[in-house]
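Quick one, tokens below. Sequence please?
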């Protein structure tokens, strides 16, 4: 009887051990819950962007925000994204601190730059321009030679006086060149000769034409200076300039120069 009791106890111990091992095994098979990730530390404040201008050896420039660089490449943030540039292509870097002006106290904010002093040549230049405009209007209505000549003399007197007060060489030179063109138109008018030109067609009346000879001055110079195509005589030889053709070419040049003067005095 005692023997059976021990045997029973031994069996109970074996069963208990087996159950314990089964429990452990089941626990090992059951998936363990994953540990919850620790809360991420608060993100550090992003460093202020550093605006940079990258001067390339080829002469181009890249402007953006500097990101990073190493011995071989650098990265710049531009509007379209990130740009990688080889350091071997970089000539120089120029950094500027963004927000520097905003961080400066109000009393230290830069003052507006003072306006540059007015150009002392402008009043005289505008006076000369106004006189040259009179010649331009005379050209439009094809003022007769006598009236044009008188207007040319008056204009030249005023413009020459104004030129003595203009120190700006470029402005002075353009005004002089404009007056020269209108003066050349006066020379063309003065050199024109009237010709009675017969017509080859029967019954067509003879024509009266004004021509400038090119075998003498000022016709020869005007032809070269303004690239005027000459007319030919009955033998097919170029010997004259037609007055209307010459005046159109000269006044076109004079008008273009006068317009350029207008742009200079409006700056």
């Amino acid at each position: 009887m005692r023997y059976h009791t021990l045997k029973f106890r031994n069996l109970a111990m074996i069963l208990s051990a087996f159950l314990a091992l089964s429990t452990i095994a089941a626990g090992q098979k059951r998936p363990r819950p994953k540990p919850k990730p620790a809360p991420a530390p608060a993100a550090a404040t992003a460093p202020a962007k550093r605006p940079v201008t990258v001067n390339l050896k080829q002469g181009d420039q890249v402007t953006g925000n500097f990101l990073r660089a190493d011995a071989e490449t650098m990265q710049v943030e531009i509007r379209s994204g990130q740009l990688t540039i080889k350091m071997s292509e970089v000539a120089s870097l120029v950094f500027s601190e963004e927000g520097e002006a905003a961080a400066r106290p109000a009393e230290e904010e830069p003052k507006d730059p003072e306006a540059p002093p007015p150009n002392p040549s402008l009043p005289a230049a505008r006076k000369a321009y106004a006189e040259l405009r009179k010649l331009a209007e005379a050209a439009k209505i094809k003022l007769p030679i006598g009236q044009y000549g008188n207007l040319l003399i008056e204009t030249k007197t005023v413009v020459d006086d104004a030129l003595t007060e203009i120190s700006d060489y470029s402005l002075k030179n353009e005004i002089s060149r404009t007056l020269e063109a209108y003066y050349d138109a006066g020379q063309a008018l003065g050199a024109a000769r009237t010709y009675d030109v017969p017509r080859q067609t029967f019954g067509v009346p003879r024509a009266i034409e004004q021509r400038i000879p090119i075998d003498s001055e000022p016709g020869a110079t005007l032809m070269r200076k303004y690239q005027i195509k000459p007319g030919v005589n009955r033998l097919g030889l170029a010997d004259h300039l037609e007055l209307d053709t010459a005046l159109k070419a000269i006044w076109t040049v004079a008008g273009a120069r006068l317009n350029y003067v207008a742009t200079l005095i409006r700056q």
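The CA atoms of residues 36 and 42 lie 17 Å apart. The radius of gyration is 47 Å.
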